[in-house]
Amino acid sequence: MKPYRFPIQTISHILKQKINSVPITVYGYIKTVRSQKQMTFIEINDGSSSTGLQSIIDSTKLPTIKLSTGCTVRLQGTMVSSPNRKQSVELVVDKLELLGDAIDYPLHKGRIPIETLRDHQHLRSRSNLFGAIWRIRNTLVSSIHAFFQSQEFTHVHPPILTTSDCEGGGESFEVVGGNTFFGKNVYMSVSSQLHLEVLTHALSRVYALNPAFRAEPSDSTRHLAEFWMVEAEMAYLTNLDSLLDFIEAQIRFSIQSILNTSLQDLEFCDGFVQPGLLDMLQGLVENPFGRMTYTKAIELLSLKKEWHYPVQWGLPLQTEHEKYLAEEIQHGPLFITDYPTVVKPFYMKQNHNKTTVACTDLIFPKWGEVVGGSVREDRLDILKENIHYHKLSREEYRWYVDVRRYGSVPMSGYGLGLERLLGICTGIGNIRDLVPFPRVHGSCRY
Ligand code: 4AD
Ligand code: MG
Description:
Layout: H1 11-17, E1 23-35, E2 39-45, E3 53-58, E4 72-81, E5 89-100, H2 114-117, H3 128-150, E6 154-155, E7 161-162, H4 178-182, E8 187-188, H5 193-203, E9 205-213, E10 226-235, H6 240-261, H7 263-272, H8 277-286, E11 290-293, H9 294-302, H10 319-330, E12 334-337, E13 359-364, E14 368-375, H11 380-389, H12 398-405, E15 411-417, H13 418-426
Parallel strand pairs: 3-5, 6-9, 11-12
Antiparallel strand pairs: 1-2, 1-4, 2-3, 4-5, 7-8, 9-10, 10-15, 12-13, 13-14, 14-15
The structure holds 4-amino-1,4-dioxobutan-2-aminium adenosine-5'-monophosphate and magnesium ion.
Protein backbone atom coordinates (compact mmCIF):
# COMPACT_ATOMS: atom_id res chain seq x y z
CA MET A 1 0.00 0.00 0.00
CA LYS A 2 1.31 3.45 -0.89
CA PRO A 3 1.95 5.41 2.32
CA TYR A 4 -0.35 8.37 2.77
CA ARG A 5 1.17 11.85 3.10
CA PHE A 6 -0.82 14.80 4.37
CA PRO A 7 -0.95 17.31 1.50
CA ILE A 8 0.27 20.28 3.57
CA GLN A 9 3.78 20.50 5.04
CA THR A 10 4.18 21.78 8.59
CA ILE A 11 6.68 24.50 9.46
CA SER A 12 8.46 22.07 11.76
CA HIS A 13 8.89 19.65 8.86
CA ILE A 14 10.12 22.39 6.52
CA LEU A 15 12.67 23.64 9.09
CA LYS A 16 13.95 20.14 9.78
CA GLN A 17 14.39 19.39 6.10
CA LYS A 18 16.51 22.55 5.60
CA ILE A 19 15.16 22.59 2.04
CA ASN A 20 17.15 24.97 -0.13
CA SER A 21 16.10 26.60 -3.40
CA VAL A 22 12.91 24.58 -3.41
CA PRO A 23 9.52 26.16 -4.10
CA ILE A 24 7.10 25.59 -1.23
CA THR A 25 3.66 26.57 0.00
CA VAL A 26 3.21 27.15 3.69
CA TYR A 27 0.29 28.11 5.93
CA GLY A 28 0.28 29.76 9.33
CA TYR A 29 -0.58 32.71 11.56
CA ILE A 30 1.56 35.82 11.69
CA LYS A 31 3.65 36.24 14.83
CA THR A 32 5.42 39.46 13.80
CA VAL A 33 5.53 41.82 10.83
CA ARG A 34 8.29 44.35 10.26
CA SER A 35 7.79 46.58 7.23
CA GLN A 36 10.56 48.52 5.55
CA LYS A 37 10.21 50.53 2.42
CA GLN A 38 11.32 47.77 0.08
CA MET A 39 11.14 44.63 2.13
CA THR A 40 8.70 43.27 4.68
CA PHE A 41 9.79 40.61 7.18
CA ILE A 42 7.12 38.26 8.43
CA GLU A 43 7.45 35.46 10.99
CA ILE A 44 4.73 32.85 10.81
CA ASN A 45 3.95 29.74 12.80
CA ASP A 46 1.44 26.92 12.55
CA GLY A 47 1.88 25.50 16.04
CA SER A 48 4.20 22.71 14.94
CA SER A 49 7.42 24.21 16.31
CA SER A 50 8.67 26.60 18.97
CA THR A 51 10.56 28.50 16.26
CA GLY A 52 8.55 30.17 13.54
CA LEU A 53 9.44 30.51 9.87
CA GLN A 54 11.08 33.78 8.84
CA SER A 55 9.96 35.08 5.48
CA ILE A 56 10.77 38.06 3.33
CA ILE A 57 8.53 39.69 0.79
CA ASP A 58 8.98 42.56 -1.60
CA SER A 59 6.79 45.27 -0.01
CA THR A 60 5.34 46.24 -3.39
CA LYS A 61 3.95 42.70 -3.80
CA LEU A 62 1.95 42.89 -0.57
CA PRO A 63 -1.81 43.09 -0.80
CA THR A 64 -3.19 46.55 -0.01
CA ILE A 65 -4.65 45.21 3.21
CA LYS A 66 -2.54 45.79 6.34
CA LEU A 67 -0.89 42.66 7.71
CA SER A 68 -0.58 42.33 11.47
CA THR A 69 0.08 39.84 14.26
CA GLY A 70 -2.67 37.22 14.36
CA CYS A 71 -3.58 37.21 10.63
CA THR A 72 -3.61 33.82 8.92
CA VAL A 73 -1.80 33.57 5.59
CA ARG A 74 -0.77 31.26 2.79
CA LEU A 75 2.72 31.89 1.47
CA GLN A 76 4.31 30.60 -1.71
CA GLY A 77 7.98 31.06 -2.30
CA THR A 78 11.44 29.55 -2.19
CA MET A 79 13.46 28.42 0.80
CA VAL A 80 16.98 29.85 0.86
CA SER A 81 19.80 29.84 3.38
CA SER A 82 19.55 32.84 5.62
CA PRO A 83 22.18 35.55 6.10
CA ASN A 84 20.70 36.13 9.55
CA ARG A 85 22.47 34.25 12.38
CA LYS A 86 19.18 33.61 14.20
CA GLN A 87 17.97 31.05 11.64
CA SER A 88 19.59 28.82 9.06
CA VAL A 89 16.90 29.13 6.38
CA GLU A 90 14.22 31.60 5.39
CA LEU A 91 11.44 31.86 2.86
CA VAL A 92 11.57 34.34 0.00
CA VAL A 93 7.90 34.93 -0.72
CA ASP A 94 6.53 35.27 -4.26
CA LYS A 95 2.89 35.26 -3.37
CA LEU A 96 1.02 36.05 -0.16
CA GLU A 97 -2.65 35.34 0.33
CA LEU A 98 -4.54 36.56 3.37
CA LEU A 99 -6.80 33.78 4.67
CA GLY A 100 -7.98 35.34 7.92
CA ASP A 101 -7.77 38.97 8.98
CA ALA A 102 -7.09 39.92 12.64
CA ILE A 103 -8.25 43.42 13.43
CA ASP A 104 -7.38 44.55 16.99
CA TYR A 105 -5.84 41.16 17.87
CA PRO A 106 -5.67 41.27 21.68
CA LEU A 107 -2.30 39.53 22.08
CA HIS A 108 0.46 41.88 21.01
CA LYS A 109 3.67 40.52 19.56
CA GLY A 110 5.96 40.90 22.61
CA ARG A 111 6.30 38.52 25.53
CA ILE A 112 3.03 38.35 27.47
CA PRO A 113 2.86 37.20 31.12
CA ILE A 114 1.37 33.73 31.51
CA GLU A 115 -1.26 35.14 33.91
CA THR A 116 -2.50 37.53 31.20
CA LEU A 117 -2.65 34.71 28.67
CA ARG A 118 -4.87 32.81 31.12
CA ASP A 119 -7.59 35.39 30.40
CA HIS A 120 -7.40 34.55 26.68
CA GLN A 121 -7.67 30.77 26.74
CA HIS A 122 -9.14 30.70 23.23
CA LEU A 123 -6.06 32.47 21.83
CA ARG A 124 -3.21 31.56 24.16
CA SER A 125 -2.38 28.28 22.42
CA ARG A 126 -0.93 30.32 19.53
CA SER A 127 1.85 31.59 21.79
CA ASN A 128 5.20 29.82 21.52
CA LEU A 129 4.99 28.78 25.17
CA PHE A 130 1.58 27.10 24.99
CA GLY A 131 2.47 25.51 21.67
CA ALA A 132 5.48 23.94 23.42
CA ILE A 133 3.40 22.78 26.41
CA TRP A 134 0.75 21.07 24.24
CA ARG A 135 3.37 19.36 22.10
CA ILE A 136 5.19 18.07 25.20
CA ARG A 137 1.82 16.90 26.55
CA ASN A 138 1.29 15.06 23.27
CA THR A 139 4.67 13.30 23.56
CA LEU A 140 3.93 12.47 27.19
CA VAL A 141 0.62 10.80 26.34
CA SER A 142 2.10 8.90 23.44
CA SER A 143 5.00 7.68 25.62
CA ILE A 144 2.54 6.46 28.26
CA HIS A 145 0.77 4.31 25.68
CA ALA A 146 4.11 3.09 24.32
CA PHE A 147 5.27 2.02 27.79
CA PHE A 148 2.12 0.15 28.77
CA GLN A 149 1.88 -1.50 25.36
CA SER A 150 5.51 -2.63 25.68
CA GLN A 151 4.60 -4.32 28.98
CA GLU A 152 1.63 -6.14 27.43
CA PHE A 153 -1.14 -4.11 29.07
CA THR A 154 -4.55 -3.75 27.47
CA HIS A 155 -5.85 -0.19 27.14
CA VAL A 156 -9.49 -0.18 28.26
CA HIS A 157 -12.26 2.43 28.50
CA PRO A 158 -14.00 2.43 31.88
CA PRO A 159 -17.14 4.57 32.20
CA ILE A 160 -17.23 8.28 33.02
CA LEU A 161 -20.72 8.12 34.54
CA THR A 162 -20.65 6.00 37.69
CA THR A 163 -22.71 5.12 40.71
CA SER A 164 -19.89 4.87 43.27
CA ASP A 165 -17.38 7.31 44.75
CA CYS A 166 -14.17 5.29 44.41
CA GLU A 167 -12.10 7.38 46.82
CA GLY A 168 -14.92 7.65 49.37
CA GLY A 169 -14.07 11.33 49.72
CA GLY A 170 -17.53 12.62 48.83
CA GLU A 171 -16.05 14.94 46.22
CA SER A 172 -18.07 13.77 43.22
CA PHE A 173 -20.08 15.96 40.85
CA GLU A 174 -23.62 14.63 40.63
CA VAL A 175 -25.17 14.32 37.17
CA VAL A 176 -28.25 16.54 36.92
CA GLY A 177 -31.26 14.49 35.91
CA GLY A 178 -29.47 11.22 36.73
CA ASN A 179 -32.29 10.12 38.95
CA THR A 180 -34.98 10.73 36.33
CA PHE A 181 -32.93 9.10 33.57
CA PHE A 182 -31.27 6.18 35.35
CA GLY A 183 -33.60 5.79 38.30
CA LYS A 184 -30.71 6.44 40.72
CA ASN A 185 -28.10 9.05 41.61
CA VAL A 186 -25.25 9.08 39.11
CA TYR A 187 -21.89 10.86 39.39
CA MET A 188 -18.94 11.90 37.22
CA SER A 189 -16.10 9.44 37.85
CA VAL A 190 -13.43 10.53 40.36
CA SER A 191 -11.25 7.54 39.38
CA SER A 192 -11.57 4.53 37.08
CA GLN A 193 -9.85 2.25 39.54
CA LEU A 194 -12.75 0.06 40.65
CA HIS A 195 -13.82 -0.69 37.09
CA LEU A 196 -10.19 -1.34 36.14
CA GLU A 197 -9.86 -3.84 38.99
CA VAL A 198 -12.86 -5.74 37.67
CA LEU A 199 -11.30 -5.82 34.19
CA THR A 200 -7.98 -6.96 35.65
CA HIS A 201 -9.76 -10.07 36.93
CA ALA A 202 -10.30 -10.89 33.25
CA LEU A 203 -7.35 -9.38 31.36
CA SER A 204 -4.56 -9.38 34.01
CA ARG A 205 -2.92 -6.08 33.01
CA VAL A 206 -5.06 -3.07 32.13
CA TYR A 207 -4.65 0.69 32.02
CA ALA A 208 -6.72 3.73 31.19
CA LEU A 209 -6.05 7.38 30.46
CA ASN A 210 -9.27 9.11 31.41
CA PRO A 211 -10.58 12.41 32.67
CA ALA A 212 -11.45 12.44 36.38
CA PHE A 213 -13.78 14.93 38.04
CA ARG A 214 -13.46 16.24 41.56
CA ALA A 215 -15.54 18.81 43.35
CA GLU A 216 -12.76 19.85 45.74
CA PRO A 217 -13.39 23.47 46.73
CA SER A 218 -9.65 24.16 46.54
CA ASP A 219 -8.15 27.22 44.89
CA SER A 220 -4.64 25.76 44.89
CA THR A 221 -2.30 25.76 41.91
CA ARG A 222 -2.36 21.93 41.89
CA HIS A 223 -6.08 21.09 41.65
CA LEU A 224 -8.38 20.95 38.65
CA ALA A 225 -12.05 20.01 38.81
CA GLU A 226 -11.50 18.09 35.55
CA PHE A 227 -8.07 16.48 35.18
CA TRP A 228 -6.57 13.49 33.41
CA MET A 229 -5.33 10.42 35.17
CA VAL A 230 -3.25 7.45 34.04
CA GLU A 231 -4.46 4.42 35.97
CA ALA A 232 -3.10 0.90 35.88
CA GLU A 233 -4.02 -2.37 37.58
CA MET A 234 -1.68 -5.34 37.56
CA ALA A 235 -2.72 -8.86 38.46
CA TYR A 236 -0.33 -10.99 40.55
CA LEU A 237 2.02 -8.09 41.31
CA THR A 238 1.57 -8.01 45.05
CA ASN A 239 4.85 -6.82 46.43
CA LEU A 240 4.85 -3.10 47.27
CA ASP A 241 8.48 -2.63 46.20
CA SER A 242 7.70 -4.17 42.81
CA LEU A 243 4.84 -1.70 42.41
CA LEU A 244 7.22 1.17 43.20
CA ASP A 245 9.73 -0.19 40.66
CA PHE A 246 7.00 -0.22 38.03
CA ILE A 247 5.79 3.33 38.73
CA GLU A 248 9.38 4.58 38.67
CA ALA A 249 10.05 2.83 35.36
CA GLN A 250 6.89 4.25 33.81
CA ILE A 251 7.78 7.82 34.75
CA ARG A 252 11.40 7.41 33.67
CA PHE A 253 10.34 6.02 30.31
CA SER A 254 8.10 9.04 29.68
CA ILE A 255 10.76 11.56 30.65
CA GLN A 256 13.34 9.84 28.47
CA SER A 257 10.87 9.87 25.56
CA ILE A 258 10.26 13.59 25.99
CA LEU A 259 14.01 14.22 26.11
CA ASN A 260 14.37 12.24 22.89
CA THR A 261 11.37 13.58 20.99
CA SER A 262 10.61 17.07 22.31
CA LEU A 263 14.09 18.42 22.97
CA GLN A 264 13.54 21.73 21.18
CA ASP A 265 10.37 22.43 23.18
CA LEU A 266 12.12 21.45 26.42
CA GLU A 267 14.97 23.81 25.57
CA PHE A 268 12.39 26.53 25.06
CA CYS A 269 10.90 25.82 28.54
CA ASP A 270 14.42 25.66 30.01
CA GLY A 271 15.05 29.15 28.60
CA PHE A 272 11.73 30.83 29.40
CA VAL A 273 10.13 28.90 32.26
CA GLN A 274 12.60 27.05 34.48
CA PRO A 275 16.34 27.45 33.96
CA GLY A 276 18.02 24.10 34.61
CA LEU A 277 14.95 22.11 33.53
CA LEU A 278 16.87 19.85 31.14
CA ASP A 279 19.47 18.91 33.77
CA MET A 280 16.75 18.23 36.29
CA LEU A 281 14.92 15.91 33.85
CA GLN A 282 18.16 14.15 32.98
CA GLY A 283 18.69 13.63 36.73
CA LEU A 284 15.22 12.07 37.06
CA VAL A 285 16.10 9.57 34.34
CA GLU A 286 19.44 8.68 35.91
CA ASN A 287 18.91 8.67 39.67
CA PRO A 288 16.70 6.30 41.63
CA PHE A 289 13.71 7.84 43.43
CA GLY A 290 13.81 7.86 47.24
CA ARG A 291 11.73 5.50 49.38
CA MET A 292 10.60 6.08 52.97
CA THR A 293 7.82 4.81 55.22
CA TYR A 294 5.12 7.15 56.52
CA THR A 295 6.31 6.41 60.07
CA LYS A 296 9.85 7.55 59.21
CA ALA A 297 8.43 10.64 57.49
CA ILE A 298 6.48 11.58 60.64
CA GLU A 299 9.67 11.14 62.70
CA LEU A 300 11.58 13.53 60.42
CA LEU A 301 8.76 16.05 60.21
CA SER A 302 8.46 16.09 64.02
CA LEU A 303 12.03 17.40 64.28
CA LYS A 304 10.85 20.64 62.68
CA LYS A 305 8.31 22.54 64.73
CA GLU A 306 6.74 25.33 62.71
CA TRP A 307 3.98 23.60 60.75
CA HIS A 308 0.66 25.08 59.80
CA TYR A 309 -1.01 21.64 59.96
CA PRO A 310 -0.24 19.28 62.90
CA VAL A 311 2.27 16.46 62.44
CA GLN A 312 1.19 13.32 64.26
CA TRP A 313 1.15 9.61 63.47
CA GLY A 314 -2.36 8.84 62.22
CA LEU A 315 -3.00 12.18 60.53
CA PRO A 316 -2.70 12.67 56.77
CA LEU A 317 0.37 14.40 55.35
CA GLN A 318 -0.42 17.88 54.01
CA THR A 319 1.16 19.54 50.98
CA GLU A 320 3.52 21.57 53.19
CA HIS A 321 4.82 18.30 54.69
CA GLU A 322 5.13 16.57 51.32
CA LYS A 323 6.98 19.48 49.75
CA TYR A 324 9.38 19.68 52.68
CA LEU A 325 10.18 15.98 52.48
CA ALA A 326 10.74 16.07 48.71
CA GLU A 327 12.54 19.43 48.58
CA GLU A 328 14.56 19.59 51.82
CA ILE A 329 15.11 15.95 52.76
CA GLN A 330 15.21 14.00 49.50
CA HIS A 331 15.93 16.82 46.98
CA GLY A 332 13.97 14.83 44.44
CA PRO A 333 11.08 12.39 44.03
CA LEU A 334 10.23 10.32 47.08
CA PHE A 335 7.88 7.37 47.57
CA ILE A 336 6.20 7.49 50.99
CA THR A 337 4.84 4.07 51.88
CA ASP A 338 2.71 2.23 54.43
CA TYR A 339 0.32 4.94 55.62
CA PRO A 340 -2.01 4.35 58.58
CA THR A 341 -5.18 2.50 57.59
CA VAL A 342 -7.32 5.35 58.96
CA VAL A 343 -6.15 7.91 56.40
CA LYS A 344 -6.49 5.72 53.29
CA PRO A 345 -9.44 4.33 51.25
CA PHE A 346 -11.15 0.99 51.83
CA TYR A 347 -9.58 -0.90 48.90
CA MET A 348 -5.95 -0.83 50.10
CA LYS A 349 -4.43 -4.05 51.45
CA GLN A 350 -3.90 -4.23 55.17
CA ASN A 351 -0.35 -4.97 56.31
CA HIS A 352 0.25 -7.74 58.88
CA ASN A 353 0.46 -5.16 61.67
CA LYS A 354 -3.19 -4.22 60.87
CA THR A 355 -2.48 -0.54 61.52
CA THR A 356 -0.99 0.36 58.14
CA VAL A 357 -1.79 -0.41 54.51
CA ALA A 358 0.56 -1.48 51.67
CA CYS A 359 0.37 1.76 49.73
CA THR A 360 2.41 4.65 48.38
CA ASP A 361 2.18 8.32 47.53
CA LEU A 362 4.93 9.51 45.20
CA ILE A 363 5.80 13.10 46.02
CA PHE A 364 7.84 15.58 43.99
CA PRO A 365 9.47 18.91 44.80
CA LYS A 366 7.12 21.85 44.03
CA TRP A 367 4.12 19.56 43.36
CA GLY A 368 3.74 17.25 46.34
CA GLU A 369 1.70 14.17 45.44
CA VAL A 370 1.85 13.06 41.80
CA VAL A 371 0.96 9.35 42.17
CA GLY A 372 -1.18 7.40 44.60
CA GLY A 373 -1.24 3.61 44.56
CA SER A 374 -1.43 0.43 46.60
CA VAL A 375 -1.62 -3.31 46.75
CA ARG A 376 -5.35 -4.08 46.60
CA GLU A 377 -7.27 -5.88 49.35
CA ASP A 378 -8.11 -9.20 47.73
CA ARG A 379 -9.43 -11.04 50.81
CA LEU A 380 -13.21 -11.11 50.72
CA ASP A 381 -13.78 -11.06 54.48
CA ILE A 382 -11.40 -8.13 55.14
CA LEU A 383 -12.79 -6.20 52.18
CA LYS A 384 -16.28 -6.53 53.59
CA GLU A 385 -15.06 -5.35 56.99
CA ASN A 386 -13.38 -2.34 55.35
CA ILE A 387 -16.58 -1.36 53.55
CA HIS A 388 -18.42 -1.53 56.86
CA TYR A 389 -15.62 0.39 58.66
CA HIS A 390 -15.64 3.18 56.03
CA LYS A 391 -19.46 3.37 56.29
CA LEU A 392 -19.90 2.66 52.56
CA SER A 393 -23.08 1.22 51.09
CA ARG A 394 -22.85 -2.57 50.75
CA GLU A 395 -25.41 -2.41 47.97
CA GLU A 396 -23.40 0.14 45.90
CA TYR A 397 -20.19 -1.90 46.11
CA ARG A 398 -21.79 -5.32 45.63
CA TRP A 399 -20.35 -5.77 42.11
CA TYR A 400 -16.85 -4.82 43.27
CA VAL A 401 -16.98 -7.26 46.19
CA ASP A 402 -18.53 -9.89 43.97
CA VAL A 403 -15.44 -10.33 41.77
CA ARG A 404 -13.49 -11.14 44.94
CA ARG A 405 -15.99 -13.94 45.54
CA TYR A 406 -15.32 -15.63 42.19
CA GLY A 407 -11.60 -16.22 41.81
CA SER A 408 -10.18 -13.21 43.62
CA VAL A 409 -7.00 -11.97 41.94
CA PRO A 410 -4.20 -10.51 44.10
CA MET A 411 -3.12 -7.27 42.44
CA SER A 412 -1.81 -3.76 42.78
CA GLY A 413 -2.38 -0.51 40.96
CA TYR A 414 -2.01 3.25 40.94
CA GLY A 415 -3.15 6.54 39.50
CA LEU A 416 -0.88 9.28 38.17
CA GLY A 417 -2.06 12.87 37.63
CA LEU A 418 -1.17 13.70 34.03
CA GLU A 419 -1.12 17.48 34.48
CA ARG A 420 1.13 17.27 37.54
CA LEU A 421 3.64 15.13 35.65
CA LEU A 422 3.42 17.57 32.73
CA GLY A 423 4.15 20.38 35.21
CA ILE A 424 7.34 18.60 36.22
CA CYS A 425 8.33 18.06 32.58
CA THR A 426 7.77 21.69 31.51
CA GLY A 427 8.61 23.61 34.69
CA ILE A 428 5.14 25.25 34.59
CA GLY A 429 3.99 25.75 38.18
CA ASN A 430 0.26 26.37 37.86
CA ILE A 431 -2.02 23.51 36.82
CA ARG A 432 -4.32 25.99 35.01
CA ASP A 433 -1.61 26.29 32.36
CA LEU A 434 -1.23 22.55 31.81
CA VAL A 435 -4.62 21.83 30.27
CA PRO A 436 -5.99 23.94 27.39
CA PHE A 437 -9.31 24.93 29.02
CA PRO A 438 -8.99 24.57 32.81
CA ARG A 439 -12.02 23.91 34.98
CA VAL A 440 -11.25 24.96 38.55
CA HIS A 441 -13.20 25.86 41.67
CA GLY A 442 -15.16 29.00 40.79
CA SER A 443 -14.35 29.02 37.08
CA CYS A 444 -15.59 27.03 34.09
CA ARG A 445 -15.23 29.36 31.11
CA TYR A 446 -15.49 28.46 27.45
O1 4AD B 1 -4.46 9.92 44.96
P1 4AD B 1 -5.68 9.85 44.10
O2 4AD B 1 -6.93 10.45 44.64
O3 4AD B 1 -5.86 8.30 43.79
C1 4AD B 1 -6.92 7.72 43.19
O4 4AD B 1 -7.88 8.29 42.71
C2 4AD B 1 -6.76 6.25 43.01
N1 4AD B 1 -8.09 5.63 42.89
C3 4AD B 1 -5.90 6.01 41.80
C4 4AD B 1 -5.64 4.57 41.53
O5 4AD B 1 -5.02 3.92 42.34
N2 4AD B 1 -6.09 4.08 40.40
O6 4AD B 1 -5.37 10.50 42.69
C5 4AD B 1 -4.29 10.04 41.92
C6 4AD B 1 -3.49 11.20 41.39
C7 4AD B 1 -2.91 12.11 42.46
O7 4AD B 1 -1.71 11.58 42.96
C8 4AD B 1 -2.70 13.41 41.69
O8 4AD B 1 -1.52 13.36 40.92
C9 4AD B 1 -3.88 13.40 40.74
O9 4AD B 1 -4.34 12.07 40.63
N3 4AD B 1 -4.96 14.26 41.24
C10 4AD B 1 -5.26 15.47 40.75
N4 4AD B 1 -4.71 16.19 39.75
C11 4AD B 1 -5.25 17.40 39.47
N5 4AD B 1 -6.31 17.91 40.11
C12 4AD B 1 -6.92 17.23 41.12
N6 4AD B 1 -7.99 17.73 41.72
C13 4AD B 1 -6.38 15.94 41.47
N7 4AD B 1 -6.71 15.01 42.39
C14 4AD B 1 -5.84 14.00 42.23
MG1 MG C 1 -3.88 10.38 46.80
